[in-house]
């Protein structure tokens, strides 16, 4: 790869000498080996999320069960941003698109914290718990946040088995916008339960969301049951029907290209811990989708996808059990970049 790739791994795995393998890994441009980064980071830290600033490829944040950390030198060194997590893991980071000092951080128990001074001070925002949230599985995790590109004060947060909430005032107040997702769970093909006794579990199991600058009122979410769309800022929802284009419908990630608001990417798999996954791309604002990961047999859930802010043809993706591959030509050809043996439960990726 001509760009640098970062991957975050969560679950520890035992190897020679019982060494933990979770953490943040970097593969620099032109190199063939992964480096586990440690300068300024605590031992035994699992990395659940990575956020890189599009205007500064050397600046990125990572979230873990031990706090939020920032690097201004491409991962060579790290600084603790002083967000005390207590018993809560950090699962998502939203960098304000216009103000580098403003950061939102999503955690367990549908907790969201915000700083407006680059981490000097933090405050917990008054989030709400959706009425349809499934509380019998595990603490509600804020897995993804997104802001309306045309109005960054409009923020959405997607929760694992918790639905979706919205703020129209930069996090000062929040409201539940999951009503239609709960209603759709009454439809036979959208009923699903694995960890609870509620058949709304699958519809409330949100993993990612995205908003295109080309259609700021249109919100996309990826969940256990597929892809779903709101055309009115979360007031109502409809099923997109991704099975028209893919045999795999379990949605783990969805994003809009930072270079072209018409181009979307989605990570689709068979299940949370399945034996196959795929990467799809749409070039028409999500109207149609085509599989992009040609020639790669993905052997576990496709967890995450990233597009370089410097090169629209540089795309990287990662599967849960350690497969990482990337392209420099927009998907015409791919390079396999397997992580070191024993690295599992991959959660996040970034490429610059």
Mean pLDDT: 95
SSE string, helices as H and strands as E: EEEEEEEEEEEEEEEHHEEEEEEEEEEEEE
Radius of gyration from CA coordinates: 19 Å
**Count of DSSP-assigned helices:** 2
By secondary-structure content and strand pairing, the structural class works out as mainly beta
Record the strand order, biggest sheet: 3-2-1-28
DSSP, total strands = 28
Distance between the termini: 10 Å
The portion of residues forming beta strands comes to 35-45%
Largest β sheet strand count, sense and barrel closure: 4 strands, antiparallel
Oligomer: single chain
Uncertain segments are: 13-18
Percentage of residues assigned to helices: under 10%
Give the structure's gist in a few sentences.
This protein has 352 residues and is mainly β. Helices cover 3% and strands 38% of the residues.
Summarize the structure in words.
The chain is built from two helices and 28 strands. With 352 residues, it is mostly beta strands. The strands form seven sheets. The protein has a four-stranded antiparallel β-sheet, with no helix packed on it. The longest helix has 6 residues, at 179-184. The chain is globular and about 50 Å long. Mean pLDDT is 95; it is low at 13-18.
Which short descriptors sum up this protein?
single chain; mainly beta; four-stranded antiparallel β-sheet; 2 helices; 3% helix; 38% strand
